Amino acid sequence: MTSTLPPYFNIDPDQALNALGAPTQTDGFAAIAAACAQGRSDLASRGLEENGERHLRLFSTWEITRYLIPVAQGHFRRVLKQNPDLPQGQSETSGGAKWFTLDEVLRLRAHFAAEGSKAKNYLPYRPEGLPAKMVAVANFKGGVGKTSTAAHLAMSAALDGYKVLVIDLDSQGSMTSIFGGKVEDEWQTVFPLLARHYASYLRSDNQRRMDRGEQPIPLDDTLSAALDVSAQSLIQSTHWPNIDLIGAQLNLYWAEFQIPVWRMQGGGWKLWDALTDSLEADGILDEYDVIFVDTPPALGYLTINGLAASDILLVPLGASFLEFDSTGRFFDMLHTTFQSIEEGENLAARALGRDELNFEWDAVRAVVTRYDGSQQAELTALMQAYLGPVLSPHRQDFTALIGQAGEQVQGIYEADYRDFNRETYARGRETFDATYAAFKSLLIGAWRRDALALQEAAE
Length: 459
Ligand SMILES: Nc1ncnc2c1ncn2[C@@H]1O[C@H](COP(=O)(O)OP(=O)(O)OP(=O)(O)O)[C@@H](O)[C@H]1O
Ligand SMILES: [Mg+2]
Prior knowledge:
Distance between the termini: 88 Å
CATH superfamily of the largest domain: P-loop containing nucleotide triphosphate hydrolases
Strand content: 5-15%
Radius of gyration: 25 Å
Number of strands: 11
Bound molecules: adenosine-5'-triphosphate, magnesium ion
Helix content: 40-55%
CATH topology of the largest domain: Rossmann fold
CATH class of the largest domain: Alpha Beta
Largest sheet: 8 strands, mixed
Shape: globular
CATH architecture of the largest domain: 3-Layer(aba) Sandwich
């Protein structure tokens, strides 16, 4: 009889006590963290190269001509044969399929763009003389697919030929580990850029203080040191030839405590502009095509900086009631937050007859992630009806290819299609290609709008 009872009945208190173990004190967390760190480095070391570097797979002729450079395989082979200086690829068996590194693919694409049919889009659209577009992926709900979406978009954009920078603003550092980043402490994250922005504000504010005969506020060691840091010095290259990274690590969380302290001291500091201004001042927006910012599941100061810096805002959410509900609240928080910044600034701006501050994004889109058509079609249709064009019509399907990715292979674009059934692979890839296509259309549309405005201004 008792054997059919649910498991939470008849738990013996003495047995429970035996299984309980000693109480945990603060030190206990250190022990658990150490065990995790050991396990992590064990996992990370499997499949890494001897020097601990991550390694990007090769791309086959089939994949290149199918997904990357739109030419017929026969034509592709002929062009290589006629141009012995171009990368010829390597094969595992004599006469077997040819495989190329992504660097080689990029060189081949440049060749086709220069020599091939002008009617084909060998190189992706990027108007000259306009800065990179920044894309923030954010939602204060955790686990909705922010990092997966940002990482896959960064990889698709890189495969498409764009030069990509990824900025990790999440102290969990997931994006950083996807791209194999090495970050010792907060000085290798965006932290010093934010500190530098405040330090230069404080310096000019001190000048004004001295002009008024007041005491300047001394710059502490952190702020003085930050003045010497450039964005370039924080950028690391990754195993992707055209994706670079500014990484994150646990200490970056310190910024959430430090920023409000600075703001208390220097009430006129425009903290939300710190990231954009620093990247712009260092010329980063001219060095890259697209910059993806992954944010933590919170609307803290780092996220506000990422959002204020971005041109395109993507808000991933699953098609469930809870995620829909909390995403609605997230938009509500965005409204309150940015409105209160604008009001604070514009009160003074109006009094001084200065231009008012109005935040603006080229595009804001909610994106359904982990979509299961057999269960979620109705709810998604309802979400679409309420959100209209704000909800991107493309739904990113749930795919087993992502969950299965190990430490070495992060997501679909790093996986070798030979490890999967070709159909499964094609379907998984299709949904992320479509996610990219929907994004690329926003990107190109926004650049086009800027290019036309620039043209009009010049006329
Ligand atoms: N399209 C998908 N198909 C299957 N699994 C997915 C898909 N997108 C994301 N996932 C899985 O969902 C989980 C959460 O994804 P992810 O880490 O990208 O979310 P997040 O919003 O960045 O989380 P956090 O708030 O912690 O930063 C991960 O295990 C990821 O592998
Ligand atoms: Mg994340």
